[in-house]
Design a protein that fits this description.
The protein has 309 residues and is of the alpha/beta class. It has ten helices and nine strands. Residues 46-53 have low confidence and may be disordered.
């Protein structure tokens, strides 16, 4: 078949579309994998656990299929109100999807939260596939044992072994999903890679830089909001964001000695936001103390989470 004939066949083939929910324990690599499969950064990544707080949808085109990946918060044993909201959101995302993709960190195996998630999946009836991540860190025989153990608990339709970091095995995964999703029109324009508004994506990027810079010093309870967004006549955009922390001592950490930390965070965030927007960015960061913001329903709505009572 000539290239022209192949193109014609592809154009006449039916389109597929659907939602694929990625669920897994914290730091299993879900956000890294979504970014890899979409081919662009749509979800933030950091060393800090529970970085993803709400569902982030990344949109990929593969062959004649539009695959909408739902990067859900990591599932873990909740301790606080915010934790409960995140875990509830993750399971809700799974139940709304056409396919559920359980991502397991091959190095950690089925310990702790991963085993709890497996048991929880017994109550979810959508088609499920198992994806073992970080396979380059584990011996092949151990991977086979891990896959067998997981499939003893849940009968997965397929098992894939991949590296989200290098992309190994990801094409086979995309081929399968493109065929598995139901026939139908695409949900989003062809050039759209996420359903996150730019104001929110910009806030997420700053939150990532905050965690990358201060993940050992700054407690989990910090939040970023984009408060002002002004398109200027010279083609640039002026953005004002607020980093909310719970205590004055946390504000000092976020600012750093002589403002060094906040300057570094602002520079890194401004650079990445500018690359995404493809226009100059003037970014202004402010740090404010808002005690017990984790109990404020308005903050949950801003993050795209339901406020648990």
């Amino acid at each position: 078949m000539t290239d022209m004939e192949k193109d014609t066949a592809a154009e006449s083939a039916p389109t597929h579309s659907g939602f694929v929910a990625l669920i897994g324990a914290t730091n299993a690599g879900k956000s890294t994998l979504v970014n890899r499969l979409v081919g662009a950064k749509v979800s933030i990544v950091s060393h800090k656990v529970q970085t993803t707080r709400a569902i982030v949808r990344g949109i990929a085109i593969h062959d004649n299929a539009q695959i909408v990946f739902m990067d859900t918060p990591g599932i873990f044993k909740p301790r606080r109100r915010l934790d409960r909201a995140m875990v509830t959101t993750a399971w809700g995302g799974a139940k709304d999807a056409d396919v559920i993709m359980l991502l397991i960190d091959s190095e950690r195996g089925l310990k702790g939260d991963a085993e709890t998630i497996l048991q929880g999946l017994k109550e979810v009836h959508q088609p499920k596939i198992l994806v073992l991540n970080k396979i380059d860190q584990v011996r092949p025989e151990d991977l086979l044992k891990l896959a067998a153990a997981a499939n003893e608990t849940i009968q997965f339709e397929r098992t894939f072994m991949i590296s989200a970091l290098t992309g190994s095995g990801c094409k086979d995964l995309m081929d399968y999903l493109a065929e598995k999703l139901p026939e139908g029109p695409w949900y989003y324009p062809e050039d759209q890679i996420s359903d996150l508004p730019m104001r929110q994506l910009a806030a997420e990027i700053t939150r990532e830089k905050l965690f990358l810079r201060l993940h050992q010093e700054l407690p989990y309870a910090s939040h970023v909001e984009t408060e002002k967004w002004e398109e200027r006549k010279d083609g640039s955009v002026r953005i004002e964001q607020v980093i909310y922390v719970e205590r004055e001592s946390q504000k000092k950490i976020a600012l750093g000695k002589n403002g060094d930390a906040i300057k570094a965070i602002s520079t890194a965030s401004r650079k990445e936001i500018s690359e995404i927007l493809e226009q100059p960015v003037h970014l202004f960061l402010f740090v404010k103390v808002r005690e017990n913001w984790g109990d404020d329903p308005e903050r949950f709505r801003e993050m795209g989470l339901e406020f648990p009572r």
